[in-house]
Amino acid sequence: MKRSWLWALSFVLIAALIVPSAALAQGTVTILGVWGGQELEVFQRVMDAFTEKTGIKVQFEGTRDLPTVLETRLAAGNPPDIAAIQGPGQMHQYAERGALVDLSKHLDMNNIAADLGPAWIELGSHGDGFYGLMIAADLKSLVWYRPDQFAAKGYQVPTTWAEMEALMEQMVANGDTPWAIGVESGAASGWPATDWIEDIMLRTAGPEVYDQWVNHEIPWTDPRVREAFEVFGKIVLNSNLVYGGPVTVLSTNFGDSVNELFTNPPNAYMHRQASFITSFIREANPDVVIGEDVDFFLFPPIKEEHGNPMLGAGDMMAMFNETPEAVEFMKFMASAEAQAIWVGGLGKLGTNNKIDPAVYPDDVTRAMAEALNSAEVFRFDGSDSMPSAVGSGAFWEALVMYIGGEDLDSVLEYIENAAQEAY
Amino acid sequence: MGRSKLKRMMPRIAINALVIFAMVIWIIPTLGLFVTSFRSASDVASTGWWTVLTSPLKFTQFTIENYQTVLSTGGMSTSFRNSFTITIGGTFLSVFVAALAAFGLSRLNFGGRTFFYGLIVMMMVVPTQMTFVPVLRLYNKLSLSGTFFGLWLVHTGYGLPFAVFMLHNFFDSLPDDLFEAAYIDGASVWTTFVRLAIPLSVPAIASLVIFQFLFIWNDLLVALIYLGGHESVAPLTVRLSSLVGSFGQSWHLLTAAAFVSMFVPLIVFFSLQKYFVRGILGGAVKG
User: What single DSSP character describes residue A386?
Assistant: First the structure.
């Protein structure tokens, strides 16, 4: 009758749905990552190249909520084989818990050392093991500007902080606004300002103090941390120096803020942001030619003795399951062949030094790669290296509070309290 | 005369004005989203959507490019199919189980009935996120993770407390005499359920179906956890969220994606809406 027909149907459906998933087993590697849109398209090309070469299938799962999903899967015992994690901070946490596979047991470390350079290996190391493979980098110490506007107004690209301050004064005297800054980014609001603090910190306090600060060996209330906030505050809290003043900074999305450079006449003349900002510029201003209409100069050194260190971030991959397929994939991602596809498609910078510079999409990217390779000192994004409660929590919030006008001492104490619990 | 009539009309005018005002406030974000979905990426980045209001008839400023991009993304038809499989299965299973449970708790006499009902309703306050790890661990053992059937089960579990609560109150409000008369005529419990309770509670069931359908259709996190984000199983929500880059690049595509995804629930809502208001009131005035 009718009812038994219904039961039969549901059993068939159930059987049909359970069986195919069980077949997912041999010769597959599963990867979890945050990439979407164009990034996903390019990563698909990387995966296709891998499958073609080895015959191993790749299943990519993308979510921008990666920490939640990864944490849940780990706790439940079915992590992905490989995950693209946020950076050294996450890597250290997972490695400490024993969740990661030591890559030095599976990869030929001599080859890796020859290809990657010591800075990248150090970033991926925890204790004696090598856990995080940097597959690409973004350079952060960049100031974007329009050469034609600079030329028209007689502005010179500054090479020291004194010149930078003089340039800002000159712009204000001309009635121009030097900076465009936006720190809104949904739940992650505030992070674009952390890059400012890190860049300044590297230049006012130097790389050693920077490392101590990232590892919380000096407190947030230390005068050297305070100084970095003050240098940033001088700019961001001054409505003459930043377009729209602090209110606009807080309410403008970081990806939109760069567009103030492209109004006519420009609302602002400089924008400090990592290399990835070019994809936002292209999207919002299709006519703009990167490298001609807009170019970058390096964030100038502040204290001479600390030189001009480069701040950057990048894509790091870590292995959670010890399968031969996953090892093959990690090997592939370390190779110049795979990285060339990834960085060539996205304008990122490769970590493998055998990459042919010709793969970079334009001269601007080649110039960034050169700046990265020739940098005397390179440091990874500090907020991505701190425990997430601080690096992707209190630090972000504190900068929103600071730009919102809160007293610097209470802001620094706020982070310090969070840090004392997190480290 | 005109004056006194106006005086009588005043409260009504005030109420209407208030309702219209509230509606306008309510609809502005959706309207903004809708207008934005027809604007090009560079327009979205440079000016707000309200700027089109100054020249709404200038059709060249509008483009369907966003919709074209969204609909032509690889795997869109697969994700539509996945969404339907998940939502229809999940809605059917949860409403079916809830109807049986609510009927038992409301119409059958057994010890501890109030206790069990209370226990089920209490589950409404348990945050979904708390259950992820233990349930996923169980699913890995039973190899249910990554299957549609597993997802139907969790959606049924998450939906049950509210569904049982709603149907229980509705069944309670049905007159006892009706069921006694049926029993005297020799009807079994099953017959009273199928022939009496279900037909009488169509409005309540229809509105429950709408609720469940919307809930499951719009879900992103539960699907991501239990099913994973791989293309072959990902529902529409997961697929659409991957249109955006890791720094939020191309977010303007999401405006069009929102309307693509909204389309199906709207059809369900409008086809069932005549039951909806009756159903919401279902069980509200218990006899």
Answer: S
Q: Which residues of B touch A313 (CB under 8 A)?
A: none
- Which residue's entry shows tokens 């199928």? B194
**Confidence check: pLDDT of B83 > 90:** yes
Residues A210-254 have pLDDT tens digits of 999 999 999 999 999 999 999 999 999 999 999 999 999 999 999
Q: Given an 8 Å threshold on Cβ–Cβ distance, is B45 in contact with A62?
A: no
pLDDT digits (tens, 9 = 90+) for A13-66: 555 555 444 444 468 999 999 998 888 999 999 999 999 999 999 999 988 888
Whether B280 has a pLDDT exceeding 80, the answer reads: no
Provide, as residue numbers in chain A, all residues whose Cβ is less than 8 Å from the Cβ of B231: 60
pLDDT at B275 exceeding the cut of 80: no
CB A193 within 8 A of CB A236: yes
Write down the ipTM of this complex.
0.78
Question: With contacts defined as CB-CB under 8 Å, which chain B residues touch A283?
Answer: 41-42, 45, 249-250
CATH architecture, domain defined by B75-281: Orthogonal Bundle (1.10)
Q: Tell the burial category of A238 from Cβ atoms under 10 Å away from its Cβ (0-12, 13-18, 19+).
A: middle
What is the count of residue pairs from A and B with beta carbons less than 8 Å apart? Answer: 116
Pick from A220, A221, A225, A296: which is nearest to A258 by CA? A296
Of A69, A263, A284, the CB nearest to B42: A284
Cβ of A75 within 8 Å of Cβ of B133? The answer is: yes
CATH 3.40.190.10 domain locations along chain A: 27-138+314-373, 142-308+386-422
CB atoms A17 and B238 under 8 Å: no
SS3 category, A241: coil
Matching CATH number, A142-308+386-422, of 3.40.50.2300, 3.40.190.10, 3.40.50.10750, 3.40.50.2000: 3.40.190.10
Residues lower than pLDDT 50 in chain A: 1, 19-25
- CB-nearest partner of A34 from B44, B243, B246: B246
CB proximity B15 to A under 8 Å? no
Q: Do B136 and A253 touch (CB under 8 A)?
A: no
Judge whether A346 and A124 are in contact, CB under 8 Å: no
Collect all residues of chain A within an 8 Å Cβ-Cβ radius of residue B237.
none
How far away is chain B from the Cα of A219, in angstroms, using its nearest Cα?
30
Q: How confident is the model at residue B209 (pLDDT cuts 50, 70, 90)?
A: very high
- The CATH number given to A27-138+314-373 is 3.40.190.10
Instruction: Tell me how far apart the alpha carbons of residues A220 and B69 are, in angstroms, rounded to a whole number.
Output: 46
CA–CA distance, B30 with B69 (Å, rounded to integer): 21
- The residues pairing with A305 across neighbouring beta strands, listed in sequence order, are none
In this prediction, residue A1 carries a pLDDT of 45
Among A37, A60, A63, whose Cβ lies nearest the Cβ of B249?
A37
Distance between CA atoms of residues A209 and A197, nearest Å: 13
User: Hey, where are the domains in chain B?
Assistant: 2-63, 75-281
- Nearest CB among B132, B230, B246 relative to A35 is that of B246
